[in-house]
Write a structure and sequence with these properties.
3-stranded antiparallel beta sheet; Arc Repressor Mutant, subunit A; about 110 residues; 6 helices; alpha+beta
Length: about 110
């Protein structure tokens, strides 16, 4: 999906070309079909080739994935998720902590 988001549209050959440690061409085609079946990608036909693109904008897909991650691994707890992120990440820059604090304050004001 990362290649599709970066390119906007791409054939299986182009996706394979841009993948690090790419599997075989037939495996890439199978992965793209699977992404399409799961509703993450779609294709149009350009002559004999299929051209794939993301079905949803990256931000929308990211929010849905974050929600699934939160529900699956943290029982819906933002606190547990943030605690884990702080445990596994490198030291957080003071500017980033300031931005996180601002997000928390905004969430409090908006009642989230």
């Amino acid at each position: 999906m990362d290649v599709l988001y970066q390119q906007g549209r791409a054939t299986a050959a182009r996706v394979r070309e841009l993948m690090p440690d790419a599997p075989s061409y037939s495996t890439v085609r199978a992965l793209l079909r699977l992404l399409e079946q799961k509703g993450h990608a779609r294709h149009t036909q350009d002559g004999p080739r299929y051209v794939y693109s993301p079905k949803r904008p990256r931000g929308s897909a990211g929010r849905a994935a974050a929600k699934r991650l939160l529900d699956t691994f943290f029982a819906g707890s933002v606190e547990q998720a943030m605690s884990t992120l702080f445990d596994v990440s490198d030291p957080v820059a003071p500017e980033e902590l300031d931005r996180l604090t601002a997000l928390i304050e905004r969430a409090r004001k908006e009642g989230r």
